[in-house]
Structures are given as structure tokens and as C-alpha cells.
Amino acid sequence: MKTSIITILKELPRIAVIVAVSLILAIAVNAVHPMQLPLLVTKGRPGLPNWVFERLKHVDAQKAMVLMKNPEVLVVDARDEPDFRQEHIPGAISLPYHGFSADFPWFSESVAKDRPLLIYCYGTDCGLSARVGKRLLVYGYTDITILRKGIAGWKAANLPLETQKEYNEN
Predict the structure, then answer these.
(1) Which stretch of DSSP H or E encloses residue 117?
(2) What is the extent of the structural domain holding 73?
């Protein structure tokens, strides 16, 4: 035991150099990677860099209704599939954050990169819509709007919802 502690103490400078070099490389790679992770998280921004929020638009439920009058606007639900099936905004499609990699291929084949997208998730403290928005920005989508307060804000405004059964019947 005593020998291993002495060995660790002798190797401590080398360990410190390896850790420091690893951190520098990780920060450098993160800085140039398109899906970069934020080093600092600010309140109200779900762990995403400023460039994402500068490119995403945000609207409340009433303004979202106005946007949805444009038939080109595609409403995207970033919540988990079971929650989408239970209830969602009329005409929405499911592109869940927790399944994005599996669902993105069909989405990218059928949705033009310049099509206006309105993305929502659970509510005020939910960052899934912004995270899906970030991924779509990285993949070249250009017109992304986030519904503030998500489906909770939609319900609070007494706006209509539909279930998966209703959705399948249309």
C-alpha cells in the first residue's frame, strides 16, 4: 500500500500534464464541432450555445396559431412518442429528442431544409425543442421557431389538441 502511494506521488506531475493536455484538446475539439457542448449553462437556455438561440425564433401559443395558418409550417413535437400519442398539437409530427438519430433519416428525406418548422416540447423548463432545433440547424434547416412554454402553454391558452387515434383517422 505504501509503495503504491509513493509511486502515485512520483507520477503526479506526469498525470497532471496528461490531464491538462486532455482538457485543452477536448476544449479545442468542442469549439469547432458543430454539436458543441456549452461550457457554461445560463438560466433559461437548456445547455445550448448562444449561436443556437440567435438563430431560433420564439413565439407564444397565440402567435404560433397565426404561424400555423401558413400551410407550409410543419409543427414538430420533440416530446417522447407515448406523450405524442396521448395528445399533441393538431397536425404535428413526432420527432422526439430521445430517438432523433433513429427518426431523422425519414424526416430529412421528406422535409425541405427551408421549410418553416414550429417545434415544441413539454413546457417552460423543457429544453427538448431547443435541442432538436439545434440538431436541425446543424443539419442545414434554416427556419426554426420554438413554441414558448411548449404544450403546457398551448393548453393554458385553451387551444385544441388531438390524440394519435384522431391523427391516424385523418
Answers:
(1) strand 117-120
(2) 50-169
Edge-to-edge strand list for the sheet holding 144-147: 57-59, 144-147, 117-120, 74-77, 93-94
Q: What is the pLDDT of residues 99-110, one digit of tens each?
A: 999 999 999 999
In a domain, 122, yes or no: yes
Mutual angle of helices 128-138 and 100-110, in 10-degree steps: 50
Which residues neighbour 135 within 8 Å (Cβ) at sequence distance 6 or greater? 35, 100, 104
pLDDT for 53-82, tens place per residue? 778 999 999 999 999 999 999 999 999 999
Torsion sign over Cα 82, 85, 87, 91: positive
Report the predicted TM-score, pTM, of the whole model to 2 decimal places: 0.72
User: Which residue reads 446543424 in cell numbers?
Assistant: 138
Residues forming beta bridges with residue 74, ordered by sequence position: 117
Domain count, the chain: 2
pLDDT tens, position by position, 137-158: 999 999 999 999 999 999 999 9
- For the segment 84-92, the average pLDDT, to the nearest whole number, is 95
Query: Are residues 73 and 115 located together in one domain of the fold?
Result: yes
